[in-house]
Design brief:
Elements: H1 2-15, E1 40-50, H2 61-79, E2 82-92, H3 97-113, E3 117-125, E4 129-139, E5 154-158, H4 163-171, H5 179-190, H6 196-201, E6 206-211, H7 216-227, E7 230-234, H8 242-245, H9 251-259, E8 266-270, H10 275-285, E9 289-296, E10 300-304
Parallel strand pairs: 2-3, 7-10
Antiparallel strand pairs: 1-4, 2-4, 5-8, 5-9, 6-8, 7-9
Helix pairs in contact: 2-3, 4-5, 4-9
This protein binds adenosine-5'-diphosphate and magnesium ion.
C-alpha cells in the first residue's frame, strides 16, 4: 500500500504539478484555493471521457490530453465564460510514464494557450477514464444560457460542421474518405479548437448558445426545449468544409454532418438586428459565422432541403441512455 501511495505521489509530482499562476493554492494540499472576483458568477462544468465510449481506445495520449480539456473549455465558451481553473480526475489501468507524459503535454499545451491552471485532481486505478472539471468567471447575469431563444431569432453556427463526425464514421468503417482528407477529418475529432473568445464576444449579442458536442440537430434541440420554441435549419446553409461537401449528398454523410457530434463549434441564436455586429465579429476573430435557420413557434428542429421540404435524418445525436 505504502508503495502504491508513493508511486501515486510521484506520478502527480512528475506529470501534473505545475505552478498555478492564477490560484491562491494549486496542487498539493487537501483543496485548491481560488480567489473569485467580485461581481462575477463562478461558472463550473464537468465532462468525463470513457475509453470505448468517448474515444477509440487506441487514440494517441497527447490528443486525449488536448481533448479532455478542450471539451470542457468548449462548455465555458458556450456560456460566454472566461476559463481559469481546472481539476483532473484520472483513472488508469496501469502507470505508463510515456503515456502520461504525452497526455500531460496535450493537456498543458492547451491549458497554457488559454491561461488555465490545473489546480487539483485525483488519481486512481481502473479502466481508463478522464474527468476534467473546469471553473471560470462570467460577469454576473451575463452568461449565455440555453433558454433565451426567441421566436424570430436567427440561428447561427461557427466554423464548419461535420468533419469530426465524418472522422468517426470513417474510423467505424461506415464511409470512405479520400486519403488526403483522413488526417484533417481526424484532427477535427482528436483536437477540436474550443471557441472561447467567440463565446465571450457573444455576450450581449446571442440570446442563447450551446456547443455542438452531440450533433447540430440534437444540440439545437436542447436550446429549443429550454427556450420553449421550435426551429428550422436549411441544410444548404450549414457551413461545410471541402471534405464534408463531398459527403453531404449521401445518407451516411448527411447524417454524420447534421446529427453526428464532436465538432465543438458554437450554435447560437440572435435577434435579426444583430446581424451586422455578428458579421463584424466574424472578421474580428477570423472565425466563420453562418446563419443557418430561424427560431419558430412550436417544438423541435426541422431540417429543410433546398426545395423547402423537410429532410428526414436517421441519427438523433448521441444519447448515452437512449433505449435504456
Ligand atoms: P487526497 O487524499 O486529499 O484526496 P490526493 O492524494 O488524492 O489527496 O492528491 C494529492 C494532491 O494532488 C491534491 O492536491 C490533489 O488535488 C492533487 N492531484 C491528485 N491527482 C491529480 C491529478 N491527476 N492532476 C492534478 N492534481 C492531482
Ligand atoms: Mg484524492
Amino acid at each position: 500500500m505504502a508503495q502504491q501511495r508513493n508511486s501515486e505521489f510521484d506520478l502527480i509530482a512528475r506529470h501534473f504539478t505545475r505552478p498555478a499562476a492564477n490560484a491562491v493554492l494549486g496542487v498539493g494540499d487537501d483543496c485548491a484555493l481560488l480567489n473569485v472576483t467580485n461581481g462575477m458568477d463562478l461558472a463550473v462544468s464537468t465532462d468525463t471521457m470513457v475509453a470505448g465510449t468517448h474515444f477509440f481506445p487506441d487514440v494517441d495520449a497527447e490528443h486525449l490530453g488536448h481533448k479532455s480539456l478542450a471539451v470542457n473549455l468548449s462548455d465555458m465558451a458556450a456560456m460566454g465564460a472566461m476559463p481559469y481553473w481546472a481539476t483532473l480526475a484520472l483513472t488508469l489501468p496501469s502507470v505508463d510514464h510515456a503515456w502520461l507524459g504525452a497526455f500531460a503535454k496535450g493537456f498543458f499545451d492547451l491549458a497554457e494557450e488559454f491561461n488555465v491552471s490545473l489546480v487539483g485532481g485525483d488519481t486512481t486505478r481502473g479502466p481508463l477514464s478522464l474527468t476534467v472539471t473546469i471553473m471560470g468567471e462570467v460577469p454576473a447575469g451575463a452568461a449565455l444560457r440555453r433558454s433565451g431563444a426567441k421566436v424570430g431569432n436567427d440561428i447561427w453556427v461557427s466554423g464548419h460542421i461535420g468533419d469530426a463526425a465524418l472522422g468517426v464514421a470513417y474510423r467505424k468503417g461506415l464511409l470512405k474518405l479520400d486519403e488526403a482528407d483522413v488526417e484533417e477529418a481526424l484532427m477535427h475529432l482528436y483536437e477540436p479548437i474550443p471557441r472561447v473568445k467567440l463565446g465571450q464576444a457573444l455576450r450581449g449579442l446571442a440570446t442563447a448558445a450551446i456547443d455542438i458536442s452531440d450533433g447540430l440537430l440534437a444540440d439545437l434541440g436542447h436550446i429549443c426545449r429550454l427556450s420553449g420554441v421550435g426551429a428550422t435549419v436549411e441544410i444548404e446553409k450549414v457551413p461545410l468544409s471541402d471534405i464534408a461537401a463531398k459527403h453531404v449528398a449521401s445518407d451516411v454523410g448527411r447524417t454524420a454532418i447534421v446529427a453526428g457530434g464532436d465538432d465543438y463549434e458554437l450554435c447560437f441564436t440572435a435577434h435579426p438586428n444583430s446581424r451586422e455586429s455578428i458579421d463584424d465579429l466574424q472578421d474580428l476573430l477570423g472565425i466563420p459565422l453562418r446563419k443557418i435557420g430561424q427560431v419558430k413557434r412550436g417544438k423541435g428542429v426541422s431540417l429543410l432541403g433546398p426545395d423547402g421540404k423537410a429532410v428526414k435524418v436517421d441519427g438523433r445525436g448521441y444519447d448515452h441512455f437512449s433505449g435504456a
